[in-house]
């Protein structure tokens, strides 16, 4: 919600975020399902891919923000942090799900989040290939190219882990023994577990199709934009210990707050 911020200012942030998505979408799409070089940002045998689509989209967003919101800070995955004089910082992941992007799968998205005094305030996820957009105004909303007027997002009721659909990007990301044990405990208790999806999973949770998203080792740009979308749809997002999720880390999102408490209990079971 806009809280104490004047409505006109909040609407300006929402408007600019949509404009940024409109700007970045074509930059990304001109490379999607095309042959392009893939760099590896990781060392030590790990794989953290980045492409000219990632860098081009973030550059376009940052340049547009410099003109539209020059006093705001920016934190992007590819080009780091730019300070600002206002209480607002834009947190950008130009392609969340680059692994999906480079194999031609549409399960990726552009994340545009806004922190106000360090707390998640607004979020938008844009999937320009499918023509879908999820965002958090005063309520969580969704729009698709063929879907007419924006629809309200609402998580579904699911109080029991035995009835829940659990999603996560990939089991190999649970690198430590403790992280793997948490995944195993939840997977053994949930009705259904599916892998793949990155940011798309969180939006499907906000839309009422998934009940739990479990991820280890996220960065702020992986999650900041998604927190307001889920919370304004009725869900909850925290770290595995129940703390604030905006700094990243091991993250749990649930559509039903009752389920969230049950999952936290199971995660932290000795």
Automatic annotation (TrEMBL):
Ranges that cross the membrane: none
MF-aspect GO terms: histidinol-phosphatase activity; metal ion binding
Sites where the protein binds Mg(2+) 2: 93
Signal peptide: none
CDD domains, per the entry: Bacterial_IMPase_like_1
Residue numbers binding Mg(2+) 1: 77, 95-96, 222
Family (UniProt): Belongs to the inositol monophosphatase superfamily.
Name of the featured protein: Histidinol-phosphatase
Organism per entry: Hyphomicrobium denitrificans 1NES1
